Amino acid sequence: MNEYILEMRNITKEFPGVKALDNVNIKVKKGEIHALVGENGAGKSTLMNVLSGVYPYGNYSGDIYYNGEICKFNGIKSSEKKGIGIIHQELALIMYLSIAENIFLGNERSTRGIIDWDKTRSKTVELLKRVGLNENPGTLIKDIGVGKQQLVEIAKSLSKNIDLLILDEPTSALNEEDSQNLLNLIVELKSHGVTSIIISHKLNEIEQISDSITILRDGKTIESLDMVKDKVDEDRIIKSMVGRELTDLFPKRNAKIGETILEVKNWNIDHPMYERKILNDININVKSGEVVGIAGLMGAGRTEFAMSIFGKSYGKNIEGEMFLHGKKVDFKNISQAIKHGLAYVTEDRKNLGLILINDIKRNVTLSNLDRVRQGIIIDENKEIVEVEEQVKSLTIKCSSILQKTKNLSGGNQQKVVLSKWMFTNPEVLILDEPTRGIDVGAKYEIYTIINQLAEAGKAVIVISSELSEVIGMSDRIYVMSEGNITGELDKSEATQEEIMKLIVSEKVGVSS
Ligand SMILES: Nc1ncnc2c1ncn2[C@@H]1O[C@H](COP(=O)(O)OP(=O)(O)OP(=O)(O)O)[C@@H](O)[C@H]1O
Ligand SMILES: [Mg+2]
Question: For ligand 1, what atom is nearest to the CA of residue 201?
Answer without folding.
Answer: 25
